[in-house]
Amino acid sequence: MTTATGSVCRSCNTPIEWRDTDQGRRPFNPDGSRHQDSTPYRKPANGNGASSPARDRAIARMSALRSAAIFAGHRANVDESVKSSDVLRIAEAWLAWLEAPGRE
């Protein structure tokens, strides 16, 4: 097992040692415990850190809007009649498709 000392965690600024494990290179505390188990910024693995439905919908809306803007921008290269209002219309249609039942 290879270790590297002298590193500091970028999240909590505590000393860590990098060790090669069978899962790859992982950070450990100097006492040998896994650093991920002791860091205060760790997200719970039991589902309590899951995003809310409102956040998921906001992400989907922004994704649809961004994709529609990119699409309209490319379309404007070949069709001069593309308007900025087309972006919202396309985004609404794509969001409706994303949120249709059975797409989860």
Q: Can you describe what's shown?
A:
The structure is a single chain. This protein is α+β, with helices and mostly antiparallel strands and 104 residues long. It has 2 domains: 3-38, no CATH class; 53-98. The protein has helices at 35-38, 53-76, 84-98, and strands at 3-8, 15-21, 24-28. Strands 1-2-3 form a 3-stranded antiparallel β-sheet, with no helix packed on it. It starts with a strand and ends in a 6-residue tail after the last helix. 6% of the residues are buried.
Tally the helices: 3
Order of strands across the biggest sheet?
1-2-3
Mean pLDDT: 83
Count of the separate structural domains = 2
Helical content (DSSP H or I, runs of 4+): 40-55%
| Broad structural category | alpha+beta
Biggest sheet architecture: 3 strands, antiparallel
Radius of gyration: 23 Å
Order of helices and strands: EEEHHH
Q: What is the straight-line distance between the termini? A: 42 Å
Q: Proportion of β residues?
A: 15-25%
Low-pLDDT windows of residues: none
Based on Cα principal axes, name the global outline.
Answer: elongated
Count of DSSP E strands?
Answer: 3
Provide a compact summary of the structure.
The chain has 104 residues and is α+β, with helices and mostly antiparallel strands. It is built from three helices and three strands, in the order E-E-E-H-H-H. Strand 2 (15-21) and strand 3 (24-28) form a beta hairpin.
SSE map:
Blueprint lengths: L2 E6 L6 E7 L2 E5 L6 H4 L14 H24 L7 H15 L6
Antiparallel strand pairs: 1-2, 2-3
